Each structure stands twice: as structure tokens, then as C-alpha cells.
From TrEMBL:
<feature type="domain" description="ABC-type glycine betaine transport system substrate-binding">
    <location>
        <begin position="25"/>
        <end position="272"/>
    </location>
</feature>
<keyword id="KW-0472">Membrane</keyword>
<keyword id="KW-0813">Transport</keyword>
<feature type="signal peptide">
    <location>
        <begin position="1"/>
        <end position="22"/>
    </location>
</feature>
<protein>
    <submittedName>
        <fullName>Glycine betaine ABC transporter substrate-binding protein</fullName>
    </submittedName>
</protein>
<keyword id="KW-0732">Signal</keyword>
<dbReference type="Pfam" id="PF04069">
    <property type="entry name" value="OpuAC"/>
</dbReference>
<keyword id="KW-1003">Cell membrane</keyword>
<dbReference type="InterPro" id="IPR007210">
    <property type="entry name" value="ABC_Gly_betaine_transp_sub-bd"/>
</dbReference>
Length: 286
């Protein structure tokens, strides 16, 4: 005899299926060394482990390894992909083997940044005043690791604008230390930066205008995952798709981490102060 599924029973079963947590609560989050990436990864690790008994590993790797790792199933999710421009080259080889999910931040910025006390406003003017931006004796744009998207775009900008400067790549903290030192003495310095970043709350900075649009337009940050993750953990998928942050919420999270000098301590401070916002995200899975 054919079974009849009454509407209320069907609704209950559907609700249970869509809000159920994954049976296997172990989760590997692939991260890269950008301030906002470190911030949100530690935030979610604390929330999910403390409230929902997940066992989460954060695996910090370079961009190429991050994308190949998701495609190969070595990581379950990663919380930051900038589209349509910045991370498109990294995505392209794996676009059929990873899943792009919900957007959580809109209106990014990316480019060469100088302190506002510096009297130039465009990349062309940077070239005209290159000698003012000497670092260790040579006209320089200070950047982060050479494998990053922004490093590649900055190399393109140097070629496109025929800038008589070289890009010197180092870690994000080393670049910020150089910025802090120059800023404290009100000396000219040019660095590669992006928004969101805590530096814009700490210092008065400005992007140099990029009329040739090498760095692209404002973008959107999404989270992404290995294939079939959304089927394996529909509850977390719903929660992360509901997650949204703006300059205030993300900026204060990064500032708390910077102030604490520890991503776990800083993220915990922010979580304690923003439980109402977190509850809104988590309500999506109820």
C-alpha cells in the first residue's frame, strides 16, 4: 500500500533535514594570511566549537594550495574568495570542483595606499615622485607575500603605469611595521592594502587613484567549499549564508584581535560583545 505523507509530517521532516547538523562535526577550514581571513576563521572556530561541539582545524596555506586543497577535498570550507576579479585566476583551474556560496561582505577595496599627509593622489603621481618613496635606498612599493593576488596586480600596475619603483614583498606584519614606522615620522611610504583592514581605523590613509582600473572595481567576498559540502552540512551552510558583516562589525573584530595581539583572545572579546548579531546568523539554522 502506498504511504501517504501528511502535510504537517512532511513539513517536520523537511525542517529536520534542512536544519540538521552534520553527523561528522570535524571540519578543516583553509585559511590564508590576510587580517580579515584570520579574524573570521578564528571567530567561527570559537562559535562552532563552543556552541555546537564542532572539532575545527584551521589550516593556513598559500593561495594556490588553498584552492587545490578545496578541489581535492583536503579542506571543507574557506571563508574568503574575492570576486569577480581578484581571486578569479586562482578559481579558474578549479571552478568545476569547488562551490561558491553566500556573500558576507560587499564593497571591498584594493590597491596602493599612502598616508593622507602625502601630497599625491594618483598612481601616475606616484611615478612622478618615485624618489620620495625610497625604502632601503630604492623607490619602493611595500607589499605582502609574492604569491598573493594583490602582489600580482601590483606588478601589473607597475608595468601599466611605467612606474620607476619596484615592489618589495614581505609578510603582512612586516609591511605594517614599516608603515607604522614611516607614519610615526610622517615620511612618505607606499604600501599595498585592501579593505576591509584594521589599518584604516588606526591610520589616516588613502588609496591612490587607478584610472586604468588595474585593481578592478569594488568586489564582494564569498565563502566557498569543497564539492558536496552543502549537502553534507546543510545546517552550517544555512548559517554561513546568513552571515553578513560590514565595515563596523568586521573592523571592530580585527581591531580587537590587533589590540589583543592574539586572534583567539581578540575574537573571543568581540564575540562576547556582539552576541546579538551572532544570534541573528545562527537563527538561520533553527
Amino acid at each position: 500500500m502506498k504511504k501517504v505523507l501528511y502535510p504537517l509530517a512532511a513539513a517536520a521532516l523537511f525542517s529536520a533535514a534542512t536544519t540538521a547538523h552534520a553527523e561528522d562535526k570535524s571540519l578543516v577550514i583553509g585559511t590564508n594570511n590576510w587580517a580579515e581571513n584570520i579574524a573570521v576563521a578564528n571567530m567561527w572556530k570559537i562559535i562552532l566549537e563552543d556552541k555546537y561541539d564542532y572539532d575545527i582545524e584551521l589550516s593556513d596555506v598559500g593561495k594556490n594550495a588553498l584552492y587545490s586543497g578545496l578541489a581535492n577535498g583536503d579542506f571543507d570550507i574557506s571563508l574568503e574568495i574575492w570576486l569577480p576579479t581578484t581571486d578569479a585566476p586562482y578559481l579558474e583551474p578549479y571552478k568545476d570542483r569547488v562551490e561558491i556560496n553566500g556573500a558576507w561582505y560587499e564593497g571591498t577595496g584594493l590597491g596602493v595606499v599612502v598616508p593622507t599627509y602625502v601630497d599625491i593622489d594618483t598612481l601616475d603621481e606616484l611615478g612622478e615622485h618615485a624618489d620620495d618613496f625610497a625604502y632601503q635606498g630604492s623607490p619602493t612599493i611595500l607589499g605582502i607575500d609574492s604569491g598573493s593576488s594583490i602582489a600580482g596586480l601590483t606588478d601589473e600596475a607597475i608595468d601599466e603605469y611605467s612606474l620607476p619603483l619596484e615592489q618589495v614583498n614581505s609578510s603582512g606584519p612586516a609591511m605594517m611595521a614599516a608603515l607604522d614606522d614611516a607614519y610615526s615620522r610622517e615620511e612618505p611610504i607606499a604600501v599595498t592594502l585592501w579593505s576591509p583592514h584594521w589599518a584604516f581605523a588606526e591610520y589616516d590613509l588613502k588609496y591612490l587613484e587607478d584610472p586604468k582600473n588595474v585593481y578592478g572595481d569594488n568586489e564582494t567576498i564569498y565563502w566557498f567549499s569543497r564539492q558536496n559540502f552543502t549537502d553534507d552540512d546543510p545546517w552550517l551552510t544555512q548559517v554561513l549564508n546568513e552571515w553578513h558583516m560590514d565595515d563596523d562589525s568586521l573592523g571592530t573584530l580585527m581591531a580587537d584581535i590587533e589590540k589583543a595581539g592574539d586572534p583567539v583572545e581578540g575574537a573571543q572579546t568581540w564575540i562576547d560583545d556582539n552576541q546579538d548579531l551572532i544570534d541573528e546568523w545562527l537563527a538561520a539554522g533553527e
